[in-house]
Amino acid sequence: MDVAELDRILLAGAAVLLVAIVAIRLTGRLGLPSLLIYLLMGLLLGESGPGGIHFDDAQLAHALGFAALVVILTEGGLTTRWNEVRPVMPLGVVLATVGVAVSVGVVACVAHYFLGLDWQTAVLLGAVTSPTDAAAVFSVLRRVPIRPRLRGALEAESGLNDAPTVLLVTLVSTGEVGEKGLLHFSGLVVYELVVGALFGFVIGWISVGLIRRIALGSAGLYPLAILSLAFISYAGGAVLLHVSGFAAVYVTSLVLGRAELPHRMATRSFVDGIAWLAQIGLFVMLGLLASPGRIGWNDVVIALVIGIAVTVVGRFAAVALSALPFRLPWNEQAFISWAGLRGAVPIVLATIPLAEGVPHADRIFDVVFVLVLLFTLLQGPSLPWLAGRLKVLDENAAYEVDIDVAPLESLGADMLQVHVPSESRLAGVEIGELRLPGGVSVSLVIRGDRAFVPDLRTVLRAGDSLLVVAPSPVRDQTVRRLRAVSRAGRLAGWFGERGRDQQ
């Protein structure tokens, strides 16, 4: 590759990225996961489209797909609200294990007995299509104000169900399941998930202490450090302990996300941008890998049958069985069932049989590709309407105040940057009514295009940004107090609101 060729590649890549970014607004208005636009772009750039780019390296697609999923899971964990996920984590774990097993069994039986496929192909189709996709779930559900426990359960499931399905698809593709038996596979899944999650927690705990104690030379280094630690969690778990790197990186990101770290909002913004880049690159690459000319009507029919089996029969059965110990009402079960969105994960998993040279692997990939397109187009836009019909919307959702932390080492203090959301109860509260700890000062209020130094009688408004200087020993207490007032108003203490994570 010479410089001229590199220039052409950079020009084409920048143009594709810009179009993809603009397309986010369109998909957001329509309630669609952006993956549909990106897959279409990949198809247009591929050998069957005007772009004419030939790409058929399944092993490279498999490796890059896993790397992109690590970034997407990192962003999901960092931005997940721990107070929503913690109470429903057991349900998320059951959905990611027992639920996946039920779904795989239903789809495999339909594919074998109804469609006449051999057992290896049938089980692969079940394993590939059963997991929900973190990128699709995070991007769609965070725009729908559903009850926190439903959102938490769906996010926890999508973050954890990659691990057992990756293992199952790999073992079936290599023929190891038949050799070692179901009991060995079940034990391996438990080991990889449990030890992977524990490893991720330890790395996250160490990372929080490290980031808090090391003063880096630039605010831009904090996001890079956190992203590096997330990749260490993934790769360390996979290489050193042979456990699920996906479970490890998701748990590490959850721990980092709930901690009050320096430049927290800047880190989230950076990782959010990298996650969008990973999603765009991943979906465009998978679109390039697909071959529309190879897809026939028979593949479309199989995709419809498998899609109905996994989305309606398998998913509803999986949720019903998984929810038995938790006594979820039927309307919440129905919403969780329909909101189990597929996306990049099934298509990435379909590259594993391709890379292993499994018979009919190209047909499995084509069927899964069509299934994801059709059912994402059906499920995504219907979720807001369905949430209203099933009465699972959270009309009194808490609006969290966003607080970023910048260390002032020489003063032994931290500067908190606080933004007042439109629905926060900080709006209408006087500075003096915040009752912040001693030594804490609200040094500046930024309102619209002007900034001013407030006094104790200054009334906060929605949209204000505050700069609050807090001595390091009372920083956490200050953050808790600001969150408490944001949730419950000036009388937060009387209402028992302390600003901590809520059950």
From TrEMBL:
Q: Which UniProt keywords apply?
A: Antiport, Cell membrane, Ion transport, Membrane, Transmembrane, Transmembrane helix, Transport
What Pfam families does the annotation carry? Na_H_Exchanger (PF00999), TrkA_C (PF02080)
Which residues belong to any copy of the RCK C-terminal domain?
403-485
**Transmembrane residue ranges:** 6-28, 59-79, 91-115, 121-141, 188-211, 231-257, 269-289, 301-323, 335-355, 367-387
Q: Does the keyword NADP apply?
A: no
Topology relative to the membrane, per the entry? Multi-pass membrane protein
Sorted alphabetically, which InterPro entries does this protein's record hold? Cation/H_exchanger_TM, Na+/solute_symporter_sf, RCK_C, RCK_C_sf
GO terms of biological process kind: potassium ion transport; proton transmembrane transport
Q: Where is the signal peptide?
A: none
Q: Name one GO molecular function term.
A: monoatomic cation transmembrane transporter activity
Keyword Transmembrane helix assigned to the entry: answer is yes
User: GO CC terms on record?
Assistant: plasma membrane
Subcellular localization is given as:
Cell membrane
What is the protein name given in its UniProt record? Cell volume regulation protein A
Task: Please tell me the species this chain comes from.
Answer: Kribbella steppae
